Amino acid sequence: PRELRWAIERAVIRAQSQPGRSTPAPPQDSPAVPTRLIHDLNNALTSINGFAEVLLTRMPADDPARGPVEHIRKAGHRAAGLLQRLPIGSERTPAQ
After folding, report:
1. How many Å apart are CA 37 and CA 83, to the nearest integer?
2. Coil, strand or helix: which one is 88?
3. 55 CB contacts (<8 Å, ≥6 apart)?
4. How many alpha carbons lie under 13 Å from residue 31 in its C-beta half-sphere?
5. Which of 55, 78, 81, 93 could form a disulfide with 34 if both were Cys (CB 3.0 to 4.6 A apart)?
6. Residues 15-30, mean pLDDT to the nearest whole number
7. Distance, CA of 28 to CA of 87 (rounded, Å)
8. At 8, is the secondary structure helix, strand, or coil?
9. What pLDDT sits at residue 25?
10. pLDDT in tens, 63-72
């Protein structure tokens, strides 16, 4: 759907931006994302973030896989923040 593509494009742009730089706000004419889509994405991110936290608590500090898991955790938290900034539509917004 167009809304999902737009959300992914925004996430990629923000992930590629340098820390400390402000990212442009979504255009005023951006389509609203259906509430259900945001809810489903949030559920998936909650699972990913929770699993990363569990892995990190069980991994020794010198484990070579720790770095990638920390990267996943940080990316998951950034993605959750992006979801909160999306323009939310109603349940009646048709998915395209």
Report:
1. 10
2. strand
3. 69
4. 14
5. 93
6. 57
7. 10
8. helix
9. 55
10. 999 999 999 9
